[in-house]
Amino acid sequence: MTNNQHIGSSLDDLLEEDGILAEVNALALKRVLAWQLSQEMERQGLSRSQMAASMKTSRSSLQRLLDPENTSVTLKTMEKAAAIVGKRLRIELDDIQEPANS
To answer: Phi/psi of residue 11, each to 5°?
Structure first.
């Protein structure tokens, strides 16, 4: 039997070891936000043009917000979009889970 140092480690451990954990987390959060916003716009029957006008922004700015790959959207923009669909943006700091010693 061989001793594999990665057996029992988590995906987060691997991503952190590769130095991309923060980037992957930001992308995952943005994908969820873009999906939730798109779903809420659809539920309310809001077109992209209507949403952009309500936000007092361009359709290209709204497209960046709805692009799940674009993580460079500001909190102010996210907050404004959430308010227009009757939601609030909630961001919090959470403790980092330390891996259990085996």
So the answer is: -60, -40
